[in-house]
Every structure is written in C-alpha cells, then in structure tokens.
Write a structure and sequence with these properties.
This protein is an alpha+beta fold and 62 residues long. It has helices at 6-15, 48-51, and strands spanning 23-28, 35-39, 42-46. The chain has one domain. Helices cover 23% and strands 26% of the residues. Strands 1-2-3 form a three-stranded antiparallel beta sheet.
Length: 62
C-alpha cells in the first residue's frame, strides 16, 4: 500500500483488503477506471483512486 493514512487503511480493512491477502482482478471499467476484484470469494468494486494505491504482485498463474 502506497497510501498510509489511517482513514485509507481503515477503508481497506473494512473491505477485507489486508496485508498478504490474495485477490483476483476480475475487470477494469473503461468509463472511470474502477476495478472489480475478488477477495475471499467476495466480489468488490474499488475506485481507480483506491486501486492506484494498492501494490500487488502476480503469482504467475493465468
């Protein structure tokens, strides 16, 4: 996470996005850049602003 403010981190925690959590990016909306992700079998939409502060690494699987 590149943004370390308390409100931002609380927002991520509320969504279930915690350090080390595995996620899958399902879709990126062309209109506004929002991102649809799968976290613990739960589908979540996050804004482009939130997504740009989340650092991820690929597990190499397609």
């Amino acid at each position: 996470v590149s943004q370390h403010s308390s409100p931002f981190l609380k927002h991520l925690e509320k969504l279930g996005l915690t350090l080390g959590k595995q996620i899958q990016v399902s879709d990126v909306t062309d209109f506004d850049g929002s991102v649809e992700i799968l976290v613990a079998e739960k589908q979540i939409n996050i804004s482009r602003e939130v997504a740009k502060h989340i650092l991820i690494s690929s597990n190499g699987k397609n």
